[in-house]
Amino acid sequence: GAVVSQHPSWVICKSGTSVKIECRSLDFQATTMFWYRQFPKQSLMLMATSNEGSKATYEQGVEKDKFLINHASLTLSTLTVTSAHPEDSSFYICSVGTGIHEQYFGPGTRLTVT
Amino acid sequence: QKEVEQDPGPLSVPEGAIVSLNCTYSNSAFQYFMWYRQYSRKGPELLMYTYSSGNKEDGRFTAQVDKSSKYISLFIRDSQPSDSATYLCACRRGQGAQKLVFGQGTRLTINP
Fold it and tell me: Closest by alpha carbon to A34, among A2, A77, A86, A3?
């Protein structure tokens, strides 16, 4: 399977600032990556599908201007949370789609907005 | 109604017990079914995937899918304390559609 890393693993920021989270596919050329958000004791909710070299596809209810996704290469996708607010505090997880069957997930990034 | 329903638990069993985890789904278009294990503050790890109805076994883990009743199960035999985690079921439509729809996850604790 694909090995996926995320950076940072934990970030604290002040309300109103922007935060960038990186997702790297270390051993697989990923044309498609996914970004999820997970609130405590809840399941993963897909935010957007990131396609290399094109615009991301956002799920209904996800603000594309607030959650900026860039997939500039086959190994890197970034999620920028702009003008973060306390309600954006969550666990953000990316995954790599390897084709037919599997998605492989990164270790997640815990965002705390104060 | 959620597309994938899963009892969040928590579920607590003694070491060595057989664990049964279940999900139901409502979308008949789902053809691929996965089980992920997630430890606290970590990303999900793929355990099993099954295409259409049937059983699949991998070591102590067995996944079952019954499309007629839209019911999926994961059985863990000889459960170990290291199996303590949250287990998430996920469903996906046919080839070419990669979007996963997850259940809420069941928190499982195996007591030594």
Answer: A77
pLDDT at A2 over 90: no
DSSP state letters, B37-53: EE-TTS--EEEEEEESS
A46-81: pLDDT as tens digits: 999 988 888 899 999 999 999 999 988 889 999 999
Whether the CB of A47 is below 8 Å from some CB of chain B: the reply is no
Facing B43 at nearest CB: one of A1, A49, A93: A93
Residue type, A26: L
Judge contact between A36 and A95, C-beta under 8 A: yes
Is some CB atom of chain A closer than 8 A to the CB atom of B40?
Answer: no
For residue A94, the chain B residue with the least C-alpha distance is: B43
Per the CB < 8 A criterion, the answer to whether B8 and B107 are in contact is yes
Question: At A5, which amino acid appears?
Answer: S
CB contact under 8 Å between A42 and B104, yes or no, is yes
